[in-house]
Amino acid sequence: MAESVTEIPINIEESVREAVQNVTEKPPTSIEGVAIAYLSLVIMAILPIFFGSFRSVKYLKEQKESGERPETMSNKDALMFPLIASCALFALYIFFQFFSKEYINLLLTGYFFFLGVLALSHLLSPVISLIVPASVPNMPYHILFTRGDNDSRSDIVNYKFTSYDVICLVISLCMGAWYLLKKHWIANNLFGIAFAINGVELLHLNNVVTGVILLCGLFLYDIFWVFGTNVMVTVAKSFEAPIKLVFPQDLLVNGLNASNFAMLGLGDIVVPGIFIALLLRFDKSLKRGSEFYFRATFSAYILGLLATILVMHMFKHAQPALLYLVPACLGTPLTLALLRGDINALFNYEDQPAIVESPADSSKTKKSE
After folding, report:
1. Element (H or E) spanning 283, and its range?
2. Transmembrane segments in this chain: where (predicted)?
3. Which one from 165, 250, 268, 283 is the annotated catalytic residue?
4. What pTM was computed for the model?
């Protein structure tokens, strides 16, 4: 009897300690809060792909009109990209194991601060042009710094901008200062969305074959580093930079100061996004007045993202999103193109067709040499 009496306080003390530990380690959430967090991540993921894809069409058109040939990813680059990404990921993991993550994150924060300000300024430029009243003049400026004179003169700085660009820069700097001081999740998401939209707009896959190689390589990369090791999850949790979108699951409980986040890496947005943007440019090249392949693959991406969230919630374990997104984004357009008889046109499409010199041109080049 005495033994049972003495055990009661011990059990009560242990249960209280466990309850306090659970509260301190993991803030309380609700089903509604979790649903809002995942739904917000889906919306924040699809918006950069949608807007970035249409901006990529405009960007390609502007470059063709100016006569520029942008650098595009080759098949070799796509094949090497997962290996380079693996080396970079593992290097970060080693750094976090042996060095203080505060100093590493301080260095990375400064680096991504400048990149984020530039990306956000580029994103805000057309918006500011619409918002600012016509009474405010948009004055052009030109910074030119050269070296040498006459024929030997070369440009060191040759930058043109307008007063609206200055407004965009000031707003972006204010957002960047907010992020540096508070590291608030809203500021993080603003920079993350800007990175994603600019990535989908400016990073171009020249053809479908390159896209297939890139997606398949990153498909294996994502599976290995998430399921095979704890490297991906460790780096994602330790890395304090706007390379991921986050949304608090305890928002309804703790408000804007919530701290229990669901997250989605920007790679799971940008990599499928540049392939979906390529399909939109392919749709435009068909001149059928529709965006069939873009809309179908865009819808498949949403379903793949929802499948990722569902499996992650069921098994309570981090999931490689590309495990579900790559089959959805590759299988959908290839199957539809096969059924509609567009498979040859799909694989033959190129944003920038290779320039092939004729025998006459090559002989002229040899003579001139």
Report:
1. helix 267-286
2. 35-57, 78-99, 111-136, 157-180, 186-205, 212-236, 256-280, 292-315, 321-339
3. 268
4. 0.81
